[in-house]
Amino acid sequence: MKKVAIYQNTISRGGRIRVIAYMTECLNELGIVPDWISFRNGFDNSDLESMHSVPINANFKIIDSFNKGLGEYKYIKLNKIMDQMSPNYDLVINSNNSLSGIKQGQNFLHFIYFPREARVISDFNNSVYNKIPNWFFRIMYSHYSTPNKKNPLIAISAFTKKAISIAYNIPHNNIDLIYPPVPLDSMNNSDEFNKENSIISIGRFDPNKNQISQIKIAQNIPSLLFYVCGFTPNKQSEKYFESCKALIEKNNISNVKLVRNAESRELDKLLKLSKFFIHTMHDEPFGLGTVEAIMHGCLPIVHNSGGSAEIVGKKQLLFNDSNDAILKITELKNLDAEDINLILENLNERIKQFDESIFKSVFTLKLKQLLN
């Protein structure tokens, strides 16, 4: 049986674990049980039965993180470790968002959501490191970023495809585009539910997701109830969640409900109830939450950047800053039901390209090409 590894720095709740689950389903159907390799894993074997629409099989392998390094270097360190381990596998799937440190491996498939190299040296710097000057990261990554460009690369949106091309100086045509999988067959008929005058956001509590701005927007639209939903997988997230909570209490904001670490059933219920969906992250690589919101009959209002803007594709639903967001939400609130339904019909046509069946078909073909 072929041996395959899928790795990323931390395996925890979020969009990437869902993509890994679909990758694993494709591998299982080929008779392969992959190793999931990471420095930290927030799951165990019992979670495999509930995290995906069908049962999947994988082996969890944790690498001793004692010498993993701090900050950005931990991504490079894991790449270097997997580079050394690659001869033990027929295929190594890199879900670590970086190519830096991989020099020898000939059997990698890089599935890049957004390159770390681009994130930390861009004007929109990673919030964890925004007090460290960009020149530091340029020096660090210039030292390690000499990837083997013969290994295949996959981007998850046109936005990330361009970022990958620039970050690694790889021709645009040498990068494949495979959108993340969304189970559109499970689409709910929102007509069966009485929509509240509410708006929902879903995402990890994190400065990059920018829930603070959502709360400030809510303060300016008191007639609209805001469900700010997210999970807190680490101390940074917990700290940011407490900052959100403190802001609400300090300003006595009554139209915001923080929903922390909700089960998927509860999130599904809130999506069915909400009229609108808001996403405030700049340069979101894709935006699974945006697609799911559309599936549930929510009208999305997203930042005019990255993959979420690519999904929505309509200026009426895009904003550039908080003031613009307030204006757009107010305008959409005043639309009649017929206009809203027309927008949603167009959006539901757009998201058909993200159906899970397309991902599974294209990704399985890629696996067969690489494993034969």
Q: Would you mind describing this structure in some detail?
A:
This protein is of the alpha/beta class. The chain has helices at 15-29, 73-85, 116-121, 134-144, 158-168, 211-219, 235-251, 264-273, 288-295, 306-312, 322-333, 337-350, 356-371; strands at residues 4-7, 10-11, 35-38, 40-41, 59-62, 91-94, 108-112, 153-155, 175-177, 198-202, 225-230, 256-260, 276-279, 299-303, 318-319. The strands form 3 sheets. The chain has a 7-stranded parallel sheet with strand order 5-3-1-6-7-8-9, with helices on one face. It has a 6-stranded parallel sheet with strand order 12-11-10-13-14-15, with helices on both faces. Helix 1 (15-29) crosses helix 13 (356-371) and helix 6 crosses helix 11. It starts with a strand and ends with a helix. The relative contact order is 0.11. The model is unreliable at 123-129 (pLDDT under 50).
Topology, please?
Elements: E1 4-7, E2 10-11, H1 15-29, E3 35-38, E4 40-41, E5 59-62, H2 73-85, E6 91-94, E7 108-112, H3 116-121, H4 134-144, E8 153-155, H5 158-168, E9 175-177, E10 198-202, H6 211-219, E11 225-230, H7 235-251, E12 256-260, H8 264-273, E13 276-279, H9 288-295, E14 299-303, H10 306-312, E15 318-319, H11 322-333, H12 337-350, H13 356-371
Helix pairs in contact: 1-13, 6-11
Structural descriptors:
single chain; 372 residues; alpha/beta; 7-stranded parallel β-sheet; 6-stranded parallel β-sheet; 40% helix
How would you briefly describe this protein structure?
It is built from 13 helices and 15 strands.
Find the count of extended strands (DSSP E, 2+ residues): 15
User: In what order do the strands lie side by side in the largest sheet?
Assistant: 5-3-1-6-7-8-9
Alpha carbon gyration radius: 21 Å
Largest sheet properties? 7 strands, parallel
Round the mean pLDDT to the nearest integer and report it.
88
What structural class do helix, strand and pairing data support? alpha/beta
Give the low-confidence spans: 123-129
**Element string (H = helix, E = strand):** EEHEEEHEEHHEHEEHEHEHEHEHEHHH
**What is the 3D form?**
globular
Helical amount:
40-55%
Strand content: 15-25%
